[in-house]
Each structure stands twice: as C-alpha cells, then as structure tokens.
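Handout, page 2. Input:
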Amino acid sequence: MSLSRQDVEKIAHLARLLISEQQMPVYVTSLSAILAFVDQLAKVDTAGVAPMAHPLAGQTQRLRTDEVTETDQHDKYQANASAVQGGLYLVPRVIE
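Output:
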C-alpha cells in the first residue's frame, strides 16, 4: 500500500504533528514502506503455526546480576534546582 501526500497530511493532522515541507517526502516514503512491510507480513500463511506463550520456550534467558552501578548524585542534581526542601523539588502550585 502506498500513501499519498494528502494521506500523510491527514495522519499528521490527526496525530497533531507538524511536518515541514522538507520532511514530507521522507514521511511519505517511510510510512509507505512500513505499510508495504505490514502487507507482506499479512500474506504469510500462519495457519499451522501454534501460538507461543513465551518466545524462549524451553530455554533460559541469561540475566545480569542486579547490582547498583551508579553512584548517588542526588545532592549534585538538587544543587541546580531553584527550590528544594527536605530532599524534594519544589515547584509552583498549578491547582488552587
């Protein structure tokens, strides 16, 4: 399936995206290629394929150990904040 410029403009409007004139041809080409790939996947016969509950059935996934690797820089980050109290960032009240 190939999209036209008008199709992409309508999609951009619905998604509230601002696409410039220079970007428009890239979006038309890219989105058309994505839809063509989806069409290609839809043509594959999957009638005899059983659904999988997990992609690694019968296998184990190697996981890294759960270790802290970053140092605590809480004070460094809060030094740049305009207002901090009790270790929390203070922001202007929005709702009265």
